Amino acid sequence: MTTVILAIHLMIAAGLVFVVLLQKSEGGALGIGGGGGGGLMSGRGTANFLSRTTAILAAAFFLTSIALTILAQRAATPRSVFDTPAATSTTGGTTDGGTTPGAPAGRGGLLDRLQGTAPAPSPATPAPPVAPAAPTVPAAPAGPVVPQTR
Questions:
Q1: What angle do CA 136, 142, 143 make, to 5 degrees?
Q2: Based on CB atoms within 10 Å of each CB, which residue in 95, 123, 138, 150 is the most buried?
Q3: DSSP code of residue 149
Q4: How many other CB atoms are found less than 10 A from the CB of residue 47?
């Protein structure tokens, strides 16, 4: 389905470029189909036909673009954390130092390297409390403070 719409999309894009280049150029630069009369259609009739064809092809181009976007969104897997279901554990905790049982092994990312191989301490043996450090008072300068330029 996507391939068919993509092929139609490319044909519409090529037709749109062709029809735009056929229109009479007011600036005199890129118009291929400008020039004098003497053709099958009058200048005004050709302009109306080409402008309507351009509008129809532009609308078809937008519709195929939107259709391709919708098809691409449906084919994509969810990439958000909120789109995936949460992994639940029946034991209520982890057994191997921070990884969920049955979860796939790490892929060597930054978090895997930072975690290391040492297991986390168990919650049954809390770390001893550390006394807060005594506040230090900065020493007064020996002389006047001169601002430095950079």
A1: 135
A2: 95
A3: P
A4: 14
Residue in the structure block whose two tokens are 């005004």: 44
> Domain locations in the chain?
2-34+42-75
Angle subtended by helix axes 43-75 and 2-22, to nearest 10: 160
Using CB atoms within 10 A of its CB, is residue 12 exposed (0-12), middle (13-18) or buried (19+)? buried
pLDDT digits 0-9 by tens, 72-127: 888 776 666 776 666 665 554 454 445 555 545 556 666 776 776 655 556 666 67
CA-CA distance, 24 to 29, in Å (whole number)?
10
> What is the spatial distance between Cα 42 and Cα 50, in angstroms, rounded to a whole number?
12
Per-residue tokens: 35: 């020039």
Task: Report d(CA 32, CA 24) in Å as an integer.
Answer: 7
